[in-house]
Amino acid sequence: MTSPSAPPPAPPRRSTTRIVAAVALVLVVVLVGGGLAAWATLGADSGGSDDAPLATPPKPSSTVAAPSYPSELAKFYTQKLDWKNCDSDQCTHLTVPLDYAHPHGRTIELAVLRAPATRRGERVGQLVVDPGGPGGSAVDYASSGAFTFGGPLTRYFDIVGMDPRGVGRSTPLECGDTEQVDEFVGVDPDPDTPAEVKDFDRVNREFGQRCLTRDAGLTRHMSTIEAAKDMDILRAALGERQLDYLGASYGTLLGATYADLFPHNIRRMVLDGALDPTLTNEQLNLGQSRGFETALTAYVQYCVDRGDCVLGDDVDAAKQHIRQLLDSLDSKPLPTSSGRPLTESLGRFGVVLPLYVKTLWPILSIALSQAIEDGRGDQLLALADQYTARGPEGYNSNEFTAYWAVSCLDYPDSVPGAQMPSKFKEFDDASPTFGRLFVYDLAKCADWPVKSTHKPAPIHAPGAPPIVVIGTTRDPATPYIWAKALASQLDSGRLISRDGDGHTGYHQGNQCVDDAVQHYLVGGTVPQDNLSC
Prior knowledge:
Blueprint: H1 16-34, H2 74-77, E1 84-86, E2 89-97, E3 107-115, E4 125-130, H3 138-143, H4 146-149, H5 151-156, E5 157-162, H6 178-186, H7 194-214, H8 216-220, H9 224-237, E6 243-248, H10 250-261, E7 266-272, H11 281-306, H12 315-331, H13 344-352, H14 361-374, H15 378-388, E8 390-391, E9 394-395, H16 399-410, H17 424-430, H18 435-444, E10 467-474, H19 480-489, E11 493-501, H20 511-523, E12 531-532
Parallel strand pairs: 4-5, 4-6, 6-7, 7-10, 10-11, 11-12
Antiparallel strand pairs: 1-2, 2-3, 3-5, 8-9
Helix pairs in contact: 1-14, 1-15, 9-10, 11-12, 11-18, 12-13, 13-15, 14-15, 17-18
């Protein structure tokens, strides 16, 4: 804390589904009052090769030996899924142990959705997908169909999404009511007095403690390793001897972790917008701060080049204008028609979200224009609410909560709020606009009640078939260098490089990337390593 096909920063690694929602829903808020000029540019990057013919895909091999599993997990691996119709899709629940070290103890339910292949007679298999986060709903992701995955994948695959443990429609981790989550989301992201730092620490500490009080077991067992083990039980319950998988953003860490645990249980795997599993929490935040500053520069250049940019006609001055606007919200939040003020925290989220998807840049221009010229924050608030899954009556999902529960179990390093000033220079140099935001993200796990014992390390997945890793050169959330690192770590990694803006590479308007992914997943044609698109 995961497009039209994919996933924003503080939390850094966000869900792709949140961006899909932003494209669809923010238009209603922004375009009605902001003019229709932006509409013509939306979808300009969406294209690709949805209708391109593919070779007749081969049927999955039936000669692969059935994977083994520990005897104490037999009841989970042999369970039969009870599918029910839910609109045009199929839904069910998967039962998994809360604690794999004690599989005979408490169990939890994980929500699963399957969107059947549109060409049943030519179906290749079942493609398990994850949109990132951590905390993104894979159920929502899978249900988005060809809009997200393109025609070839939805024609030949059942698209399967499972909300990870603690997330969405699965047994959820809930840590507060709307007012309490608002306080956690809206806490000053750049506290600059001892009193503000103390309040920052209090809010984070109390929020984490509520998680532990409400469900101590789930709070202690939402790690990526446990979610990857759940995914192997899903594979077996689907009746698949090997897994086909497409993961975006944090979903790449989930996929790579699965590959390391179960390398021989993979058939085909694509990891798009990759995380580097060797990085610490501090290194991830520093890398993302650079990535979002790069993305902001690209957006401002776009705004200036189009003319009549509300930020002016000089890129450096325009970026300074944005920083001044965001800083001013600390002492003077902007009013909105909802009655909820646009605070500094929400303002930064509102600016950050459109940097994930280039087709949202015109909407960011409209939102900034309203804030700067009219002194109102409605449209930036609409963007921020899409980022945090906030609806008019409260939060639509627990994504923001789940993000921290997973991250604080995955990364052992943190920096208490009082020690943050020692990090300011390094992060400010990396990102004058967002650096402090990422610095204070490091403090959240310092106040979390459950401490991680996991150590970041390279993932090699020895014995796995070719694993395709996609990196985008100006990806703000998962910098391109991370994809290069993961591809080089994996024994069978194959890197595809997309030269472009926005988060993730597949189904983002680059036919070279789309063709390579589709021919690999559908037909089994492994792309050349270091393919440049």
